[in-house]
Amino acid sequence: MKSSDEALVHLGRALKDAGYRFVTITPASHARVNRRPGSARAATLRDVFGWSRPFAPDALPRPLLDLLERADAVASEERGLLRSRVRFSSAGDLLFVHSAYPTAEADSVFFGPDTYRFLSLLRRLRPRARRAVDVGCGSGAGGIAIASLCGRIVLTDVNQKALRFAAVNAAINFADNVELVESDVLRDVRPPFDLVVSNPPYLVDDAARLYRDGGGRFGEQLSVEIVRQSIERLPPGGRLILYTASAVVDGIDTFAAAVEPLIAGMRYHYEELDPDVHGEELERRAYESADRLAVVALDLTC
Question: CA–CA separation, 166 vs 93, rounded Å?
């Protein structure tokens, strides 16, 4: 691990020791909160590392500022202010570093409401495995959350920044049974593995940001490919847990319709977790035919 990443690990552990907690909300809600009077400048650790607000150098304890600088994760602003280039989000007893707000760069690593819903699904299902794969791991939250239930966890992504943050997050949270593999879905993951979990990008994103753009007509392409490759690569009795979204068009769940030929005759449970997410997307041309976007989960046994 590079010295800059080691600094991020020490920073994350120092924040945990300080009792830092922050629940990251949607970018739209984040913008609304930061526009409030009095929110222009950071005064607390949550302001600096959660709300991504600019701060004066003396607003941060010197040891934390030193770690932020050693991590090459601080940017200069106007009037002598600084801004953290990373955010830290808490989920239960776990803490995760990821990209700072706003996540505009193509390789940004996002953490937000979908992450929390995905983690809630995994907590409910409590999957166990000898060797599991978290496909499109992003911050690594899903795999790290179930690390104690598995012999080994493979965190995969096509985004090198995501793999960097995932490695740091595994270290922050003392998950020492983690492997990192740069892979497009499962193509470069060596067998065997008996569990695949995934919370992939599922939107049509004009900026083609890796954490948002799922490809296909409605953003479903990557999710369908994860189902296809999992069926091909998992052994009999292997399990796929997929958290994604579906455009519902004229009452038809388009993702379910797309994967039905792949999973016909197999044992699975499919459920709608939230009937209405990302409502603002319905104003875009890509979703002009959609009634709504729903978050769904597929729990499939091969």
Answer: 17
Domain count, the chain: 2
* Alpha carbon distance 30, 27 (integer Å): 5
Q: Where are the alpha helices (DSSP H) in the chain?
A: 3-17, 27-34, 45-49, 62-70, 113-125, 141-145, 160-172, 221-233, 254-263
Instruction: Give ∠ CA 101-107-113 in degrees, rounded to 5.
Output: 50
**Is residue 147, in this structure, part of any structural domain at all?**
yes
24-68 residue pLDDT tens = 999 999 999 999 998 989 999 999 999 999 999 999 999 999 999
pTM (2 decimals)? 0.96
Give yes or no: residues 192 and 59 share one domain.
Answer: no
Instruction: Single out the residue in 72, 99, 126 at which a domain terminates.
Output: 99
106: its two tokens: 């193509």
Tens digit of each residue's pLDDT (9 = 90 or more) over 66-114: 999 999 999 999 889 999 999 999 999 999 999 999 998 989 999 999 9
Q: Please report where in the chains the tokens 């760069």 appear, as a residue.
A: 105
- Name the token pair of 164: 């960097």
Dig out the tokens for 168 from the structure. Answer: 């740091």
- Residue 23: give the domain boundaries: 3-99
CATH number at residue 291: 3.40.50.150
